[in-house]
Amino acid sequence: MDSYKAWPADGDERAIRFTGNWREYLPIAATNVALIIVTLGIYRFWATARQRRYLWSRTHIVDDGLEWTGTGKEMFFGFLMVVAFILPFFVFIQFLFPALVARGKEAAAGGLMFLFYIAFFYLAGVARFRALRYRLSRTWWHGIRGGSDNPGWNYGGEYLGRHALSFMTMFIMYPWAATRLWNSRWKAMSFGPLQFRADLTAKGLKARWVWVYIAPLLLMAVSAAIAMIVITAKLDGQEADPEKMAGLGGVLGVILVLFYIVLPLATLHWYAKFYRNAAAATTLGDIEFGFDATTWDWLKLFLGNIGLAIVTFGFGLAFWGYRQWAFMVRHMHVYGVVNLDQLTRSTVAAPREAEGWADAFDVGAI
Amino acid sequence: MIDGILYDGVTGDRREVRAEPIGGKLQLTHSDGSLETIDAAVLRRIDRDPDRLRIGRSDREGWRLLVPAAAKSDFDPLLGKEERYGRWIDRIGLVPALVTFGVITAGIVAIGYLSPKWIAPHVPESWERNVGDAIVGDFGDNRCRGAEGQRVLDKLVERLDPGATHGPNAIRIATLDFPIFNAAALPGAHIVVFQGALDEVEDPDALAGVVAHEIAHVRRRHVTQALIRELGIGALIRLFAGDVGVNAQQLVSLSYTRENEAEADRDAIVMLRRANISPKPTGDLFVQLANEMGEEPGFTGEFLQSHPLSRKRAERFVAAAQKGSPIGTPCLTANSTRSS
């Protein structure tokens, strides 16, 4: 029996495939929604576990599917653990803040709020790291799982620091922050004995960030110019030509609409390239990754999500997770060779609090 | 004998084995011919996709036996029940679970809806006063400290509700120096009127209506109810809430607030009448506010706004004025409301 699997570098047979279909998933989605409603949301942890068990099992890498071993129970208790830890602080702040304001100590209240946001941001970073670690620790392939021994407290600090730097430079530094954080996060992860490596740089991403950056400024500048025209016309005392005014109003309306279209598009444009570059810059042992979703692909995904939710009167929301996962897998590529008899049991810790932190702070994992 | 694939959990190697259930045990024949017998007690059903049944072992992490799904019936006797919705749901079955939890949830929502109303009257006012003072304090620099203005406001409260500014449960009214048109009842029998409201109200009798409304909130323990609702059911639902929960909570607290608001309006009209102040200026004020905000009566607007429509509230006061209530004597001279 050969231990080597030659993975197709290209060709018809893709190394990673999604084999699920919506008809198979429909009963899962429907019962999840029903149970979440009647349990006032408590079932959502079990719903997530069921959804992932399905999605993972329908994701084939070369000759076998992935396996999700996380349970609803552990996610529920993980959430409770984290909430029990942070709830006292929330309650304390909730009473302390208005008490300070009511006593006219706005500066103290402001300082308190500032510290609160700093702590919140730090923990959000930790949460993001730990969610990824948890997901890898519950993901199995060929009887081997992933994970990390790093608890993520340092990552939280790095997350806070890099975002603070990005904020202080009015987000000019954001591409550097985002790429370095990707590297730090993934470098700490492993699968079996294999360590992830990531050396994503801002190279090739800056141009796209410029678009995200200048799009709102450009629109604001144009709106301001129009506003100036209107104001000067009024100051001149001329009763404005109503037709002209209506025209300007129309332009302002168009700009407002553009604001809601251009800005998300520019963001999507940035993220599309970010994920393509990020996948290409990440390796696991001798395995390399690729991701080929374009801005247009992402746009179709999101428009499809929205359309689906509308025509199904909201039920389609239950399919967003499915569509997102299928999208990621269908656009992902895996290249290289893995030595199966050296792909040995992972020795890293399997966290117990599951996604409690990420749940409490409502952040994603990847 | 069924051809299967074995992962031992130690390496990622994929080994071909032949598997056979024999007498409550699982017998594996490895490719080198060796035999292995595994007790059914340690076997776990992991998952099933259309092609394969996946079996794990509780004593060996990562150990997996994959057999064709077609052979499922051969292995079923060795394996426990399939977990479908989570053990706690499977135990009672999907439909009974939906019904049971549906009933329990409806009960919790009903109690959450009603209990603040039941509990609020039994909360000692001294407790509420302690909580209120802790939250509110003395308002620091935000409070207008003019003695004359304060005297005028106290006099107004006394006229609306004689004796209200004295005793252990005295209503404490204050003006806050913010340019906002609003007034509010706070925990601990505090009523605050914002400077913006004092500046904007043209007829002092309208101010009397607004203050009477807030006095009613205090006296009816609406503030206490709101506190309980916020700390109790609100926190609980928000904890687990997906979007469903948030909407449910909003509906509960909204309909509640509306009921309280209507009650406070009715009390306010009674107070105004008793004090011989016409409710009409209050009604006019609400009409004016409704016009300024461009509120249009409509089913969704009516239902989803956190406060009842001002127009509707205005109608109550105007109707009260028309129902032969005395025109009344003006409660204050126009400029005496300017405090600090």
What would your notes on this structure say?
The complex is a heterodimer of chains A (366) and B (340). With 366 residues, chain A is an alpha+beta fold. Chain A has one domain (4-201, 281-345). Helices cover 62% and strands 12% of the residues of chain A. In chain A, a hairpin with a 2-residue loop joins strand 6 and strand 7. In chain A, helix 2 crosses helix 3, helix 5 runs antiparallel to helix 6 (174-187) and helix 8 crosses helix 9. The longest helix of chain A has 39 residues, at 242-280. The radius of gyration of chain A is 25 Å and the shape is globular. Chain B has two domains: 2-82, Pleckstrin-homology domain (PH domain)/Phosphotyrosine-binding domain (PTB) (PH-domain like, Roll), CATH 2.30.29; 123-337, no CATH class. In chain B, strands 4-3-2-1-7-6-5 form a seven-stranded antiparallel sheet. Chain B has a three-stranded mixed sheet with strand order 8-10-9. The model of chain B is unreliable at 242-256, 296-307 and 333-340 (pLDDT under 50). The interface between A and B is large, with 52 and 52 residues.
